[in-house]
């Protein structure tokens, strides 16, 4: 995914305000459409309810019985993380199944393996692979919310947006692409003079050399769909699972372990050894955003911006479409 060059930051003041921000009241977690919690999320409740409804307990709360958000217990967090692992594996398998079916139809079954390893594979290979992964990722998110959550993906995963999220996200995405990645790889450029070109290979695998229509379709999927799916999976399901799992480590160490671990998992999941450092670094930044803002909105825009910059660098290598 174009997150191959990318798929950013979550994080209080006084004790009273911190508690109000981090611990929504039990009503916020109600799955009853007629309850005050539903009104808080839709804005029809009181200001206090609405503020609490916007909060994400994340690593600070224990569970619904004391005002926390899912996963409520260590057992629940273990289930969420196991579902995440299962969703990732299922996504890989589904990608293979989808690609095999398409290859069988278009007569490329015998050379499918060679096509998938090309520097620039056919567009149908890229799209088929992405769709399989998305099904696995979203299946894990939906299942976790259904079996160990409130059955509301918006509430359980923090899929909320605010008017200023695009501004925050775009700025963070540009910083991640032009500052963070450059700083992380700066020491290695003296060792490998071709490092910059080598780091572009995953993006070229995804977008390079395609004709205009194919490139446009893949660019739209990479900028609009990939950030939403991956943020739900990594910064919703995985990060929140780790936040609850590491809660016992303390209010500072627990979230730190969660965001760093999620970033590393994010990097490893892309299977790009050379890009692992940049992907993990950017994954930590996205996790800090999700923890700090208690919603996925800013991270989704940051992720999309990061991917867009990578696409443009490949599509316009000298200022012109190749």
How does this model look, in words?
This protein is an all-alpha fold. It has one domain. Helices cover 67% and strands 0% of the residues. It contains 14 helices and no strands. α6 packs parallel to α11, α8 crosses α14 (297-315) and α12 (253-269) crosses α13. The longest helix is centred in the C-terminal third of the chain and has 34 residues, at 212-245. 48% of the residues are buried. The model is unreliable at 1-67 (pLDDT under 50).
Low-confidence stretches: 1-67
Rg for CA atoms:
20 Å
Element-level helix/strand string: HHHHHHHHHHHHHH
Whole-number average pLDDT? 79
Quick structural gist:
Helix content is 67%, strand content 0%. It is mainly α. The radius of gyration is 20 Å and the shape is globular.
List the keywords.
0% strand; single chain; 14 helices; 322 residues; mainly alpha
Element layout with pairings:
Layout: H1 15-22, H2 36-42, H3 47-54, H4 74-106, H5 112-116, H6 123-148, H7 153-157, H8 165-189, H9 195-199, H10 201-207, H11 212-245, H12 253-269, H13 276-293, H14 297-315
